[in-house]
Write a structure and sequence with these properties.
about 140 residues, mainly alpha, three-stranded antiparallel sheet, 5 helices, about 55% helix, about 5% strand
């Protein structure tokens, strides 16, 4: 990591439906995939992130634990959190889980609004068909 620039500068979208810890994880995964974060880069300390975006420290800890679980970073006692990038396929696995979580939340919202399962399935088919047309 260069001493000239921070490895990543987090941003929080308060209007997003994504949980703040998920937004942090998304940003690290995206930066890793784009090559902005490389093996050996150090993530900002929890304290720096808290000051940077005014967020609860537990939220940052939760995001860093998730990134460790994915195998993208490791915490080194007394030194910080570093990108290790050994989680082969981890960003893809994370994205798959992430969209499933979003879909689960959408289904729960639809059901709580009185939408039946058949209508949910038909809506999904319609979305898939319109998306396929848009990308063909």
């Amino acid at each position: 990591m260069s001493d000239q620039r921070p490895s990543i500068v987090f941003r929080l979208d308060t209007r997003s439906d994504r949980a703040p810890f998920r937004q942090l994880v998304d940003q690290v995964v995206n930066a890793f995939e784009r090559g902005q974060l490389q093996v050996g880069d150090q993530l900002p300390s929890v304290r720096v992130v808290v000051r940077q975006i005014t967020i609860n420290p537990n939220t940052v800890h939760r995001a860093y634990r998730e990134l460790e679980h994915l195998g993208l970073v490791e915490g080194r006692l007394g030194l910080g959190t570093f990108v290790i990038g050994s989680g082969e396929g981890a960003p893809r696995d994370y994205r798959a889980q992430s969209w499933r979580d979003a879909l689960r939340e959408s289904v729960a919202l639809a059901r709580s609004s009185g939408v039946g399962d058949d209508e949910i399935v038909e809506s999904m088919r319609g979305l898939l068909a319109s998306d396929a047309e848009a990308h063909s």
